[in-house]
Amino acid sequence: MRNVLESSERILVCLSSSPSNQKVIEAAARMAEAFHAVFSAIYVRPANYDALPEDDKLRLRENISFAEQNGAAIVTIIGDDVPVQIAEYAHISGTTKIVLGQSGARRRHFQIKPPLTEQIILNAPDVDVYIIPDSSADLKQQSKRSDLKDQIRPTWRDSLVTLLILAAATGVGLLLRFYGFSEANIITVMILGVLIIAVYTASPVYGIVSSLAGVLLFNWFFIEPRFSFHTSETEYVVTFVIMLISSLITGSLANKLKSGARQSSREAFRTKVLFDTNQLLQKAECEDDVIRITAQQVKTLLNRDVAVFPLHPGGEPGSVIRPDSSPDPLRENEQDKNEAEIAEWAFVHQTAAGAHTEMYKEAKSLYHPICLNGYCYGVIAVYLNGESLESFEYSVFSSIIGECAMALEGLRNAEEKRQTAIAMRNEKLRSNLLRSISHDLRTPLTSISGNASNLLTHYKQLDDETLIQIFSDIYDDSEWLIALVENLLSISRIENGQMDLHLSLEVVSDVIDEALRHVDRNAVRHSIIVEPGEDILVAKMDARLITQVLINLVNNAVKNTQDGSEIIIRSEQAGSFIYVYVEDNGPGIPDDMKPHLFEMFYTGQNDVSYGRRGTGLGLALCKSIVEAHGGSITLTDREPTGCCFAFSLPTEEVKFYE
After folding, report:
1. Tens of pLDDT, residues 373-400
2. Rounded distance, CA 197 to CA 168, Å?
């Protein structure tokens, strides 16, 4: 359903309805094959797509099909600002090379706006642009037709503003004439009215119309004979021409300033939205947070209902996520009944579907995939209900999706690194485990095997004392193996998070007594003292696991201290914790060993041990069990010699009822 792409080169070819566009596609396909690059094709669908000739639509579909046959992933973007949207997509997708066609027509001397190819180069300076001779004028013409349509489209508001300002300028002129001001002042007022109209109306057409209307009104109301378009003075003809030119120039300048201000405002808004989105996404700790932040930002930007179909662990779009905490039932009824099907198609093909697209055009929502580097993280749906996104809105919308994809890519990479680190750590643990226990298992097994062989071959020749010694050695070795296996199983369960704590209130002294029943048989060579406390101490614990902790600590003291040493076990309460101490008066532990003592497989030992290496699991297991209970375990020196292991357990007040 998705490809894992490893190539660093990404080639993007621009699609159009031009008959020669297939030549451009072929050139891009050969380039992608030569560079072993990821190959994509983009088509910027204009808002007036339905008004295009059927021949153009047919050729476009053929070109899209031809690009798919050549291995291109098709991407469709809705909008009219072709170069900006191509450059924006190239930035989001990590494109390294853009291939497009160029018209053979020469640029006119008075053409202010640069050609499409030059605009793409200007908007994507960090991307290599390859130009193939082609008639790309149709794409540019689509943009021009759409722009012209937007420019000349009249609105009731602008028409009313134009009429009111012209009427106000005429009224002020009549007032000035009444008070005897010269015609130059009246001309200035009329030009000022034209300037105000150009500023406060959306279309530049109103500036041109108001310029002509201002000249006619000046002629009608202020030039003799008044209330007619005739004049007996030829010098007024020059006045009219100058006034018309002045009005047109001021109106044009006002429109340019307004257009620049609008563009600056949009860029500032776009920058703020993207900055806020980036800041919020940086704080996201999981993929669900990224999805919800993106959905909320898109809803804030477009003021439309948004739904997201994130990537399911099974490799398909998962359950829908909406930014609203309480969905509106009416809105739920207005959603597409087959939204899951449309989202699935957009996810698989990594191409927008739904409203204003080729696929599922009857849908009420636009379904846009969240893709980066050939990997799709889900689909975001924007409820349009017959409306269309403006070019600027779509540009910011695409940028937010790009930010979302990059954030998800970062989380995905971080998770892969974490999994790799875990795998490396597990591999290291496995190697350490095999290396550590291979010798430790061989020693007792060899002893058991040798003793069993002696019993089989020389049983009748052995006296009772020797037999008892052999049986004791077999028993000790088997008990050591059982303890080793038990520690290994406990460690593995804790490391995998599979150990369930069965917590209950237990009397600490009872748990200590139970642990002493299962300590090493060699403990009889030492003096084990249990100091009773003044009060009965009750802690919340898993008695079986804490018993194992005490057994490991006592056995550790037995193995690492000389015969006849003193081992003291005591307990006390401090605040909300109960502390249990296991002390000895042995030789102590060197300072260089202390930082590593609770590490798994660390086996530093003293010379007084009985010749059997430890596996380095006992103290690591104690630390894991105590921390699982919410406590801690520490090691300190005991004066004058020896060491003291102490661990804490949370206590709980016991209430007695009569």
Report:
1. 778 888 888 888 777 777 667 777 888 8
2. 11
Strand-pair partners of 645? 582, 635
Distance CA 72, CA 39 (A): 5
507-535 burial code (b ≥16 CB/10 A, e <16): ebbebbebbbeebbeebeebebeeeeeee
Number of C-alpha atoms within 13 angstroms, CB side, residue 378? 28
What residues contact residue 444 under an 8 Å CB cut-off, 6+ apart? 477, 478, 480, 481, 612
Gap between the Cα atoms of 494 and 492, Å rounded: 5
Closest-CA residue to 124 (of 144, 95, 164, 162): 95
d(CA 117, CA 100): 8
CA-to-CA distance for 511 and 544, rounded, in angstroms? 9
Cβ neighbours around 500 below 10 Å, total: 8
Q: Does residue 185 surpass a pLDDT of 80?
A: yes
The beta-strand segments (E) located in 295-400 are 306-310, 353-354, 365-372, 375-383
Q: Which residue's entry shows tokens 């069990």? A: 625
Q: Which residue has the tokens 């089989």?
A: 456
Q: Are the CB atoms for 404 and 292 separated by under 8 Å?
A: no
Within 10 A of 116 (CB to CB), how many other CB atoms are there?
23
Per the CB < 8 A criterion, the answer to whether 115 and 152 are in contact is: no
C-alpha count within 13 angstroms, C-beta hemisphere, residue 34: 8
* Phi–psi pair at 604, nearest 5 degrees: -65, 130
- Rounded to an integer, what distance in angstroms lies between the CA atom of residue 407 and that of residue 401? 10
Q: Domains of the chain, with CATH numbers?
A: 10-151 (3.40.50.620), 155-267 (no CATH), 284-417 (3.30.450.40), 498-650 (3.30.565.10)
Cis omega (within 30 of 0) on the bond before 590?
A: no
pTM for the full model?
Answer: 0.47
Q: Answer for the pair 578, 649: CB distance below 8 angstroms, yes or no.
A: yes
Q: Which amino acid is at 128?
A: D
Question: Is it true that the peptide bond before 225 is cis, omega within 30 degrees of 0?
Answer: yes
Distance CA 254, CA 251 (A): 5
Number of CB atoms found within 10 A of residue 566's CB: 15
Give the pLDDT score at 247. Answer: 63
The gap from C-alpha 183 to its chain's centroid, in whole angstroms, comes to 67
Q: What is the mean pLDDT of residues 43-48?
A: 75
In this predicted model, which residue has the larger pLDDT, 28 or 69?
28
DSSP 202: S
DSSP tag of 72: P
- DSSP string computed for 471-532: HHHHHHHHHHHHHHHHHHHHHHHHHTT-PPP--EEEEHHHHHHHHHTTS-GGGGGSEEEEE-
Q: Crossing angle for the helix pair 543-559 and 464-495, nearest 10 degrees?
A: 130
Distance CA 464, CA 598 (A): 43
The mean per-residue pLDDT over the stretch 482-510 comes to 74
Q: Provide the 3-class DSSP secondary structure of residue 65.
A: helix
Q: Which helix (H) or strand (E) holds 29?
A: helix 21-35
